[in-house]
C-alpha cells in the first residue's frame, strides 16, 4: 500500500490539499460542529445498538438473512461515516484544514469501498425479499448462511474493485497546484477539477463505473420489487399483504434515499460536488443517511421493535 502511495505521489508536486468545503457558512461553524457531532454520535450508537440487538436477542439467533444483512448494513454505515465525519469535525475547530496527499488517497479509497459495498448490499437485501415473498418454498434452501456470506463478500469485492479503479483513475493524474479542494472530504469530482492534465478520459471512467455500481444494483432492486408487488397483488389474504408490504417498506425507503443522493452526485453528466448544492447532497448521504437507517428499519419492523422492547424491559425492569 505504501509503495503504491509513493508511486502515485511521484506523479505530482502537491503534498497536501486544503479542504474548503462548507466555507460559505463559516460564521455557523460552531453550530455545524455541534450538530455534526450529535449526528455522528447518534449514527455510531444507533448502528452499534442495531448490531448488538441482532446478535444478543434470542429471536435473531436463527439464521434469518434479513437481519444478517441489516447487521452488515449497520457496520457499513459506521465505516463510511467514520471515513469522512471525524475529519470534518476537526476542520470545524481548527484553522488548518489541510489533509496530506497520502491521507487523501486513503480516505477516497476507503470511502468508495464502503459506499459501493452498501449499494450492492442493498441489492442483496432486495433479492432476499424477492425470495422470501415470491419463492417461499425454496427460500430456506437458497438463502442459506453460505449464500448470505457470499453476497456480502461479493459486495465488498465490487467495492474493492471500484475503489481501486476510481482511486487509480484520479491519482494517476498529476497535481501541480492549486491544491484547494472545494469540498469537505477527498472525492473524485473535485479532485479531477485540480488535476494538471486533460481529465476527459478520467471523467468518462468516473461516470461509467459510477453508473455501473449504481444502476446495476438499482436494476436488481427494481426488478425484485416489481416481482414482489405482483406477488403481493395476487395474495388473497389482507393480513398477508400487509405483512409482506411492511417487511419491504423500510428497505425501499432506505434505498430511495440512498440512491437518490448518489445518482445526483455521481451519475448525472453535469453532477459535481464542486458546488454548494453538491456539498449539501454529500452531507446528506455521508452523514445523515447512516444515522437514519437504524431508525428507518427499527420503526418499520415489528420484530426489531419487539426485540428492542424486550431488551429495554430486561434492563429497566430486571427480573
UniProtKB/TrEMBL annotation:
Q: Tell me what topology the record assigns in the membrane.
A: Multi-pass membrane protein
The residues covered by the G-protein coupled receptors family 1 profile domain are 46-297
Q: Which UniProt keywords apply?
A: Cell membrane, G-protein coupled receptor, Membrane, Olfaction, Receptor, Sensory transduction, Transducer, Transmembrane, Transmembrane helix
What does the record list as coiled-coil region(s)? none
Has keyword Metal-binding? no
Location(s), subcellular: Cell membrane
Task: List GO molecular-function terms, semicolon-separated.
Answer: G protein-coupled receptor activity; olfactory receptor activity
| Gene Ontology CC, one term | plasma membrane
Q: Where is the signal peptide?
A: none
Query: Per the UniProt record, which residue ranges are transmembrane?
Result: 30-54, 66-85, 105-127, 204-232, 244-267, 279-299
Family designation: Belongs to the G-protein coupled receptor 1 family.
Protein known as: Olfactory receptor
Q: What is the lineage of its organism?
A: Eukaryota, Metazoa, Chordata, Craniata, Vertebrata
